[in-house]
Amino acid sequence: MTKNIFRTKSINEFISETKHDGGMNKVLGTFGLTMLGIGCIVGTGIFVLTGVAAANYSGPALIISFIIAAIACGCAALCYSEFAAMVPVAGSAYTYGYVALGEFWAWIIGWDLILEYAFAISAVAIGWSGYFNNILMNIGITLPKALTVAPYNGGWIDLPAVLIIVLVSLINIRGVQQSSLVNNVIVIIKLAVVALFIVLGVGHVDAANWVPFMPYGWSGVFSGASIIFFAYIGFDAVSTAAEEVKNPQKDLPRGIILSLIICTILYIAVSGILTGMVPYLQFKATAAPVAFALQSVGYHWGAAVISVGAICGLTSVLLVMAFGQSRILFVMSRDGLIPKFFGHIHPKYKTPVRSSSLICLITGITAGFLPINIVAELTNIGTLCAFIIVAAAVIVLRKKAPERPRAFKCPFVPVIPVLAIIFCAILIFMLPGVTQIRFVVWLLIGLAIYFGYGYQHSIISQAKRGTLSSSIESAAVSDTAAGEAEGMDTTHTH
């Protein structure tokens, strides 16, 4: 079994499987993908985590924390881009791991991504609920605490958080074109709001607020980077849309890299202005630091506009994360590692409706009944581990299949992938110990599911036992032949 758990699938097999049942609609280009990335990245990072990281970890050196996190993500994004262009299949890092490292590591990545997206969706929905309730209070409407707070904090259910998840899920079920259109509109609104903050705030920067610049030392800067890393989660969601992209070889790398560059520039500008407007310790008293900063200098109307922008920003984050999560579950189901039931594509909408419905159910329950600190803690560590494995997979596949056509090549291999591994490992080390322990428990649960179900039910295992449908087997055989014609080693077990 030890050898078999590292069995791989060829790239040709993955691509062939996307054509079954007619596949999904290919409607996205570079612009749509870039907007998806921005839609998922710009949100919680700017509107919530900037204040938390400045007050408790980085101080005015928050700018450096963002740069460190951006370097880690930038190296990982280059690795993602190589794979995305070479393996244009939904599933993101899970698929890349399957091709380069084998089924076991693919499962680990997939399980990490389930953790990342599910808890991130829940955390963002709870944050959305907080902003929504704040806007209602400003216009004289107060919802009962029992319906806006989780039981852990004295309520019954966080109903607004549950309802926004249901709404986002329904939009995603209707199709990627509808999801992309809604996301584009929301992204334009929130980018306008961020630009408004920069224009209003830059004239109120006081350099005295940047002293001391690094009050918590380098340890605080790196801890801050590990916390605000959450702000960059999202560019990887672009790669989950691979099967719905018109020209994935060109559009996917462009969408991933452009969205990351745009968001990094925005984060650095906002964090610099934010800590220059208000002494960093004052952010301890607020969960809405951008609106708080504008209120502090007298722009109350601006703070109200920012709150609306935050609602839009968090909505687009939810939309893209729910989209990405459903596509990962869809591909894992198609591979047999989770029940085939969730790999069904709706004949009318051409979307994985069952996967989307499962995500809606799980994240709705989590957001409705658990507090934000519990659901947010595990998001970063799952993503960082996935990034590490993807970076390692680039190095491995360069050795195993150097002749494979690559529409986009990560530069300076193995230097860039190694830097991605090192930076991500440092950020994992800087996370709280309790988060690391919970992550280990999550992995143990995942291993139990893999060895108890996934290993026996994967399509590779079924093919070896002769129980796989003839249509899929014949496709695999023809794709293996195609791979051999290219000089590729496409055997399942290595």
Report on the structure:
The chain has 494 residues and is mainly α. It has a single domain, classed as Up-down Bundle (Amino acid/polyamine transporter I), CATH 1.20.1740.10. It is 70% helix and 0% strand. The chain has helices at 11-17, 30-41, 44-58, 62-86, 93-100, 103-138, 159-174, 176-201, 217-228, 235-239, 248-277, 289-296, 300-334, 353-369, 372-377, 379-400, 415-430, 433-457, 459-465, 470-485. Helix 3 runs antiparallel to helix 9 (217-228) and helix 5 runs parallel beside helix 16 (379-400). The longest helix is centred in the N-terminal third of the chain and has 36 residues, at 103-138. It is globular, with a radius of gyration of 22 Å. InterPro entries: AA/rel_permease1 (IPR002293). Keywords: Membrane, Transmembrane, Transmembrane helix, Transport. This is Amino acid permease. It is found in: Membrane. It is a multi-pass membrane protein.
Please give the structural blueprint.
Blueprint: H1 11-17, H2 30-41, H3 44-58, H4 62-86, H5 93-100, H6 103-138, H7 159-174, H8 176-201, H9 217-228, H10 235-239, H11 248-277, H12 289-296, H13 300-334, H14 353-369, H15 372-377, H16 379-400, H17 415-430, H18 433-457, H19 459-465, H20 470-485
Unreliably modeled segments:
469-494
Radius of gyration: 22 Å
Domain count, please report it. Answer: 1
- Kindly report the name of the CATH homologous superfamily: Amino acid/polyamine transporter I
Give the end-to-end Cα distance, rounded to a whole number of Å.
12 Å
User: What is the 3D shape?
Assistant: globular
Order of helices and strands: HHHHHHHHHHHHHHHHHHHH
By helix and strand content, what is the structural category? mainly alpha
Oligomer: single chain
Q: How much strand? A: under 5%
* CATH topology call: Amino acid/polyamine transporter I
Q: How much helix, percentage-wise, in residues?
A: 55-70%
Number of separate strands: 0
What is the number of helical segments per DSSP (H or I, 4+ residues)?
20
From the coordinates shown, what is the CATH architecture? Up-down Bundle
CATH hierarchy class name:
Mainly Alpha
Q: How can the largest sheet be summarized?
A: none
Report mean pLDDT, rounded to a whole number: 84
